[in-house]
Amino acid sequence: YQGCFSIFMEVKVELSLLEKEKEVDGLSPNGKASPFADCRPNGALGHGSDEDSTPLRLYHKPRDYVEASICHVKDLENGQMREVDLGSGRALLIKEHGEFSAMGHKCPHYGAPLVKGVLSKGHVRCPWHGACFNIATGDIEDFPGLDSLPTFQVTFPALQSQKRSKPMARCSAVINSSTGFSHVLIIGSGPAGLVCAETLRQEGFTDRIVMCTMDKHPPYDRPKLSKVCTETLSTKLRQYRIYQECCITECRDVKTRSVTFDDGLRMEYRKLFIATGSKPKPMNYKGKDVRNVFHLRTPEDANSIARLANNKNAVIVGTSFVGMEVAAALTDKAHSVSVIGIESVPFKKALGEKVGKAIMKCMTLPFCFSVLKLKEVVLKSGKVLRADVCVIGAGSVPATSFLKQSGVHMDSKGFITVNKMMQTNVDGVFAGGDVVMFPFPQRSNKKVNIPHWQMAHVHGRVAALSMMGRATEIKTVPYFWSAMFGKSIRYAGYGDGFDDVIIQGDLDELRFVAFYTRSEEVVAVASMNYDPIVSRVAEVLGSGKTIKKRDVETGDISWLIDKGSQ
């Protein structure tokens, strides 16, 4: 639906009515020519044919609009954002370099108010999880999340919707589930696999894509499982089905480009994307088959944990982020929650001892640091913990065992090594997400593993573009978040090997910023109750600039704090 600004003595946002519409061929939601307007069925990746083009979804342009007076043109200075009420909904009004623009006011990922985010160089970065949106088009430019934002300049959905899915080309191939061939085969239905599939369609690829997974569900928002733990948990990312439920038993013949499933089906492919994620780290203990012991992996696991823990005794094994998030989520549901770990301070390796101790202050849980064997839960000390439900969150390993003898190169820990285009050592085989070691530009292309939800999105997009012959390098700042006991931790950068932590703010009040430095350079940042500082640092690091240790030691970090939002 159409909207625009009339700038005279006041800024006005004009929104269209829904009653009168007419079709406009070849227009995308940002008013530009659709990238799929001249798409044709292609027999090979990245190449067109002379056959008739597949009809694509049409976009609609309304004939009429309504008008709302927002503010005086001088009320907004350059670099400022304002959330405005238009009667039928709200929008984010932006002024940058003298130009006004408007788009959805909430991040489509988890609904963060973007007015509290960071405006810089033509995009807004979310204050919670770091996703970036182009202010001219509303398109998502950095992850996490799948959807873009509606823009109120040319064409957009109703204001009540605060997200927009990019248009996707339709598949021109004849769909037959028994066909043992797919132009693109995606193994895994996590964020890397889903973004890979969607990017291919968004970029005009019309041949067959098959996504296979061991999950019983279409792609879902796995980070919510440990943070929310409710019996009514709903985490579906998309409503449509683009996958088939199956299990890969072997992938031994990459030279002939084929995989074999557990039901005997053999599928050939032209391009393969491996995004199987991680699996729980194996532990040796008695009681592995007890029904009330869980590795949190699926919505069913989360729902069962919540049900069994209700007014009962819960034991969490492991002080990983997943383990501690589950413990926090159960504190107001369970009769008791006990956490067992081998470290005296949680998150010490990732966040440092000072931050770990500060986070412990908001925890009222009994901690036991020992090794367990299971019946109730019996510790080495002899202490017995009653356990109506037990959740094991003691780390993970890459789910790549099916690739043994495949010819795909893996390191000693089972991680797949890829180049900057997410391609493995085998032509036509790509990988991404938790399973890969990839060259990271911010560490001089040293190969690293960064198992973040946001990073998996990036890998999926880079792999898809590489498959289509549009090679692009990873340009992102790692960003992750955790939520426990009503508090949120945000983190950006790559802090592995940090040698010092500079704290600004008040650890006792849990309102602080922690800068992680390595050789006199800030390599990562974490914060609690200090938004949007982490997104601001991500913006600086993402621009290629360096933040020196001396820049954050003085105590004056006002230069990092965005003062342009209202």
Automatic annotation (TrEMBL):
UniProt-listed InterPro entries: FAD-oxidoreductase/Apoptosis, FAD/NAD-bd_sf, FAD/NAD-binding_dom, FAD/NAD-linked_Rdtase_dimer_sf, Reductase_C, Rieske_2Fe-2S, Rieske_2Fe-2S_sf
Gene Ontology cellular component annotations, sorted alphabetically: mitochondrion
Coiled coil location: none
UniProt domain Rieske: residue ranges: 68-155
GO terms for MF: 2 iron, 2 sulfur cluster binding; metal ion binding; oxidoreductase activity, acting on NAD(P)H
Keywords, sorted A to Z: 2Fe-2S, FAD, Flavoprotein, Iron, Iron-sulfur, Metal-binding, Oxidoreductase
Annotated GO biological process: execution phase of apoptosis
Region (Disordered): 26-56
Pfam families: Pyr_redox_2, Reductase_C, Rieske
This protein's record includes keyword Cell membrane: no
Family, similarity comment: Belongs to the FAD-dependent oxidoreductase family.
Alphabetical list of PANTHER family matching this protein: APOPTOSIS-INDUCING FACTOR 1, APOPTOSIS-INDUCING FACTOR 3
Record's protein name: AIF family member 3
Organism expressing this protein natively: Myripristis murdjan (pinecone soldierfish)
